[in-house]
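Re: folding output
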Amino acid sequence: MNKVKINVEGESREYSAGTKLLDIAKEYQKNFEDDIVLAMCDGKLSELYKEAVEGNVITFITTKETCGNEAYKRSATLLMLKAFYDICGARNIDKISVQYSLSKGYYCTMKGKQTVTKELLMSVKKQMENLVKQDIPIDKDSLSTKEAIDLFAKHGMEDKVKLFNFRRSSRVNVYRLSRFEDYFYGYMVPSTGYLKYFEIYPYDEGFVLQLPVKNEPKIVPPFKPQHKVFNVLKESAIWSKMLEVDTVGALNEQIAKGRINEIMLIQEALQEKKIAEIANQIVERGNVKFVMIAGPSSSGKTTFSHRLAIQLKVLGLKPHTIGVDDYFVNRENSPRDEEGNYNYEILEALDVEQFNKDMTDLKDGKEVDMPTYNFVTGKREYKGKKLKMEEDDILIIEGIHCLNDKLSYSLDKSLKFKIYISALTQLNVDEHNRIPTTDGRLIRRMVRDARTRGTNAEETLMRWKSVRNGEENHIFPYQEEADAMFNSALIYELSVLKQYAEPLLFGIPQDSPCYLEAKRLIKFLDYFLGVSSEEVSKNSLLREFIGGSCFRV
């Protein structure tokens, strides 16, 4: 029998020709604490059904790594769908939609003759557990785009039909679990036996499929309802249906029909209406002096602050915007992370004492010399910018820690109105494939940093992990404490950002540690038809990233 020589995890090995990566992974599993679900084969991400060939260099990927965790989540979604169809029967299901991320899980809804009840979910969970015990292979077929369109039309999955009508590639990968067939954006685990960790909870009109996070891949985190975030997402979903754009395929369809300018105008009007509603809430409170705005990176906090200020002026107030970043300590005094890099994401990176002194003085009617942080020199500077609050004045303060009362400990809570802003993408690839909100924000940041800071896409991708860790630790835990929430995602934005982001991503070399992530994002953007930025309004949140804003951000 023929043999092939390969390198596995730094060891030279010899295997029979035709040996699958899965068989090699099982041999090496004892060396890993977490389950091996994918492999890096000659620098390319690979599923384990592939065969090893002469000269392969192979390393394994577990569920503790981002791409491994994502593969687990996709596969668990397939498992859940299969169980629903087994229990309810295809005739009783019109559509199951994986709508958005909620409390480390996926909020899903089902339409059809069957109603979502606790009893049904218990039966579905039991069937999922049965399928896990059977360790059924998750098979993969490559179909022509025409064959895929015909297949999903037969299954009544119209979102996928719309998606593939605009597909540039001639082939589509279709996954099969027993007789259940579906399309997923990304790789899968080899079989159902890997999918031991999940929980399913009834919530609102649907249910939440709760799954492990990469840091603890064998533990299902407790379900903690995020009612305020959920209501914002639900409101955005209603907007999407009103615009007839809830998936990428539907967006592409509207672009092809020439409706994109109308969609842009309606989306911008909806956001302006929401900002006006928040301004009214602030005024109705009566005693607010400090509007505290927080949100993760690239949420559009700066533009939102300017637009909120305009709405407050309409209501008779005199707003002044303050960036908490201007209170960074001098760079030589900045704290560092575990890798020795400056850590600007934690509260200790700010001069909290000076911030509180200045805010208290302003509240008491004193004139304050306001700082400006110079990001080039790493110094806080004073350039004679004075501020003094009168009776109708109100401060709009923007920064990642603004929902944390430790930042503004000296200010009475009754004087503060807290706003959480994030780009909570309401658009999905199709009914079963979510667009992570982090992807939208990452692409926004990449485009903005290249334009305003001379930072290339590789540098942005390298820093993203640190940024995300800061968000998880210092922003997300406080989001439910907000008095109001604002979704800054624009339903059309990825079609506009595409033309800016793609050249940046193509510029990342193959030997870069970010190359695979760049390749993933390029593939993701390929789903979208491109749209010119000319019709994007000058006060749009999107202008903060692509340039041309009337607010000069």
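--- second protein (sequence, then structure) ---
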Amino acid sequence: MTGKRLITLGVMLGIVWMVSILRVFQIQVLKSSYYGDLAKDQSEVRVVLAPKRGEIFDQKGVRLIANVDQGAGMPAGFRGSRICPNGRMAGQLLGVVSHDGYGQSGLELHLDRDLRGTDGWRYVRHDARNRYTPGDDEQASPPVNGVGVRLTLDARLQDVVEHALERGVKRTGAKQGVVIVVEPATGDILAMANYPFFDPNARDSAAGESWKNRAVSMVYEPGSAFKVVTAAALLQEGRMAPSDTVDAEGGTYKLAGQVIHDTHSLRRISFTDALAFSSNIAFAKMSMRMRPIDFYKYIRSFGFGMKTSVTLPAEESGRIQAVANWSARSEPTIAFGHEISVTPLQMVMAFAAVANNGILMRPRLVRAWVDGEGHLTREEPPRQIRRVIADSSAATLREMMRGATEFGTAADIHHPSITIAGKTGTAEKIDPKTGKYMHGHFHSSFIGMAPAEHPAFVCLVMLDEPTQLKYGGQSAAPIFREVLDRVVSEGMITPDHPEVWAAKSSLPPIPGTSQLAKEFPAQVAGLVNHAAPSKVSVPMSQTVNSTAASPHAEQGSLSQSRSNAGSDHVMPNLHNTTLRDALQRLQELGVQVEFEGAGKVLEQEPLPGSALHRGIKCRLKLGWAG
């Protein structure tokens, strides 16, 4: 029995052994790949390797958007965060990224594919206790970092523009405003500002729709600023010459059942004066000298009714009806800027074409692409779109546009040493719900260029619903003038008459601009300082000895200040005089001067009629009172 048991036991053990061998053979040979993959899945994890997002710089290399290194301890694949070292500067234009590193608005969205780069990956092996165990067979693919971008934007000018816009909006009580500065020869956008501002660093607390870039997304009727396009068509078609005249009907004219009004009660005036004084009636009548289809072709050629193809998201195209849908009053109404909708960018680019001798440029915002070390990888050259008018027509039109700032609707911003060509615009807003005009609610604008003969820059200012000063010459034009003063004082453009340039002494320093010259850590720590502007004290030796008072200052302002004073032994009344007139009068009296701001005299200390004495100092506050 014992032997049989042993035999039975041996057979059973043999069977077990054979089953074990077969099982091992099945696992290690027949299903080796299956169990190998199962083991690998349990011990290996695929980790995403996030690339560094490309940074954004201005044209001179000032960092506008930077990556922030979160340091060790971040989870694998974490994309870090972005920061704007200059705070709110160009916030709507630059935009933001989501928490997982994808662009959400502005340039961050539009250039996301290039800025973001390409994810890498690697497999990390862990043991049963989840400890990393390196091996020779690890698989990996390194990330490809995004490329950086250098913009056409000038951070210094952007800062100037934003401060001028903020002051202008607050001065006029407007809801919001836009300023765009363009270099006409290249189409480069040098500055693009929206107010209220938007700080990408504090986007979670941003109010309402402040993140929207209205420079490209806002659609509005341009009003009288569009008369420059009408004038360009009339000149190019040979329908009007600058000295040709038209009857402005005394300010009221009925056409196709519509009554057209002018602010000024003008009679027979020249084409140049019609532009300078912004006569709706004159332009309505002159436009009908063209065939509607010809006028329409010029409007389209200047870029209206289509996107500019700027490298920004959410750009609107505006609207112009096809000629087949025009009514009997459409052509004359469009001639002075109604029955057509535009964007601020379209308007400034159209004016830039006039400044660029009739050639329309594509707006350029990206100048070049750079690698992580700042080396140039590729450039984006300026691009011409088309010639819209002849260079001779453009030159004639610029000369005509000088009338607005020398004796017309924007005469208050006449500059003593640099010629300005420009046009004001004031148009009632349209209620988007009813499609009807909103009485008393205006878009007010001014678009100018300087120097007029060979413009170096074109600047648009557009204000939404100014409540204190509704007309473009009162509300928007002074903002342009402040920007121009800064541009000249900073040496960005040269005045026509440098020998009489003295206005820069009246300009307080822009708060916080020294931050732009600092390296990234300092920018993060300080962002932008909003200290109040400092006063400027000017010795009489630095005033206008070599130049006469502005010929376009208010008539009689100097003689009236003398008569109001009653005697040369008392302080004269300088209210509403130009700085140049005030300095000349006080110099005659031997009075030292301290002043702040730009524009005309709003306040003075001592008051008019105060007794003069040796060493007395007069303090002047300048500004624009409409």
